[in-house]
């Protein structure tokens, strides 16, 4: 009976296996000391896996630029692989290594789905851009997850941030991790300008936590997303930035123009959003009548009772909303405010599933019980979770 998938924790066992039988291979080689000779043996063996279509690697080995280029040479032998996952987090890969890896991946011409995790390395904007240009040469690539979080990507470079994606405009599914870099407003504006060309994009997830982004950066992002006309699912992680209020109305209004958008996750935790910001966000989202799934994370802001109540009053106008997740915990909302919030949600005639986190606010145990009772009165509600 032929093998369907196989997991290896050391190179020796793989080299002695029946290579031609493999279709789905996964290597967990973390903290193994594999040098150039080992990577060469790996490449030779992979070339003999003639039926291989799915391949995954995980290396945490203090890999440098030279090491990752050796890995790239091994991967070039996998000409039939259509699904590839590479995890190289917590290594010492710089611009040269990122560029070389991209050039190697460009030779895997049958790739359709690529997941590339290079979090917490030494890659700058030049290396990230070189890698992207190489990946754009893959004619069948439709789905890309690229994790470049906590590297050395900033706007203080002769290239602009948009160059990371400039040539990958045929993607239909994209997840981009850029958290913990030094992107700022200018970098986000450049990135947004490039995203406007992604007319085939259907599912987009963007991680921009901890990047010193202010309202002006969010304004540019929203105006670019409008041009992604086929977008159906959008997830934006923007926590731990410097976002206040002025951009939220424009961002929500931009999303209203994404006529196919039905799933939205928006993480704005640990910013500077007050009652006015919550009210404007709610007003804008109330115009998005196609939403069926909405998740809002607004914890650790400056939202009080007025802002929370206004937000929920607006959300009940989302006429197709079925599933809502709302986190406004660790804010400034007392029991009266939370009660008004739940009462506003109770007016929704479509809501089926609700997750509501109001924890670490200013209410007593007895008041928490009253809130739970109010949730039970929501029309049509099938399930709910209340954290208070």
Automatic annotation (TrEMBL):
Q: Report any one BP term from Gene Ontology.
A: nucleocytoplasmic transport
Q: Which SUPFAM superfamilies match?
A: RNI-like
SMART domains hit by this protein: LRR_CC (SM00367), LRR_RI (SM00368)
Q: List the Gene Ontology MF annotations in alphabetical order.
A: GTPase activator activity; small GTPase binding
Q: Name one GO cellular component term.
A: nucleus
The record ties this protein, via Pfam families, to: LRR_6 (PF13516)
Q: Which PANTHER family match?
A: NACHT DOMAIN-CONTAINING PROTEIN, RAN GTPASE-ACTIVATING PROTEIN 1
Q: What is this protein called?
A: Cyclic nucleotide-binding domain protein
What organism, scientifically named, is this protein from? Tetrahymena thermophila (strain SB210)
